[in-house]
Amino acid sequence: MREDPSLAILRLTAGYGDVPVLMGIEIVVNQNEMVAIVGPNGAGKSTLLRCISGLIKIRGGEIWFQGRKISDLNYLEIVKMGIIHCQEGGKVFPEMDTEDNLLIGGYLLSKSERKKQLDFVYNLFPRLKERRNQMAGTLSGGERQMVSLGLALMSKPKLLMMDEPSLGLAPIVKKTIFGTIEAIKREQKMSILLVEQDAYSALELAERSYVLDSGKVAMEAYSKALLENADFKKIYLGV
């Protein structure tokens, strides 16, 4: 018998003020599955993640996580359930050093679990171990993105949501970030929801993908099928 999905979004509507952004979104993420959300700027990808994490209130529909309705919970309750939202832009606590930034993410863990998870993050990002005593605000953009992702991983999430992890990064750093995401997918038992402007790279990583366009799901398929879909490549990849 197939397990219940990790995340189920049903008929979701949301927006800002009088402006609708998401209209009737339906998305499923299965247990330990990586799903990509791609689409043009302004399609509602980041808004979708904010709805799931409780940062904005939805207008209609439902969000379920591991069999529990969460669309009426606040963001602190949602975090405690194991849903972690790594926001775009490599957000860090700039006046704290790298290691203290990471340890904040593990505040709900026991001391031994926190140490184990910190070792895991340092293994993923050796650069952060080298910079562990450096103020996070003085790190490069790529290093701040590593800290942001490492902080998210410190809590041992059940569902990790990443919003544009490669945004603004140099190609070589971008490659490192995507390689790390692949390692997380391989080594950690969690579900992953990846929002990424670089659609090709996202589809290469994820098992399944949804295409958002103008606040609606325009396509959904196994990622390999989308990469071979002529309409998708023409409209969303420009090839």
Cα-atom radius of gyration = 17 Å
> How do the helices and strands follow one another from N- to C-terminus?
EEEHEEHEHHHHEHEHEEHH
Instruction: Give the overall shape, derived from the CA principal axes.
Output: globular
The oligomeric state of the chains shown is single chain
Runs in which pLDDT lies below 50 for 5 or more consecutive residues are none
- State the strand order across the main sheet: 6-7-8-3-9-10
Q: Give the total of beta strands.
A: 10
User: CATH superfamily membership of the domain at 1-82 and 203-239, which one?
Assistant: P-loop containing nucleotide triphosphate hydrolases
CATH topology of the domain at 1-82 and 203-239: Rossmann fold
Q: What is the residue-mean pLDDT, rounded to a whole number?
A: 91
Q: For the record, what CATH class of the domain at 1-82 and 203-239 applies? A: Alpha Beta
Distance between the termini: 40 Å
Give the helix/strand class.
alpha/beta
Tally of alpha and pi helices: 10
Share of residues in strands: 25-35%
Largest sheet: 6 strands, mixed
Share in helix = 25-40%
CATH architecture of the domain at 1-82 and 203-239: 3-Layer(aba) Sandwich
